[in-house]
Amino acid sequence: MNIVILDDEAIICxxxxxxxxxxxxxxxxxxxxxxxxxxxxxxxxxxxVDLLIA
Length: 54
What we know:
This protein is of the alpha/beta class and about 55 residues long.
């Protein structure tokens, strides 16, 4: 499962990324993190994303 984290606060993205890494495994992959919705819409390959955390 490919996960994208989107939040305007960098510390939130970092914390969620750390939690996913600590409790992850082969079940999921942190695909990308973004701090701006417009950047995410332009840059992300949404066909490969299974879950968006915003």
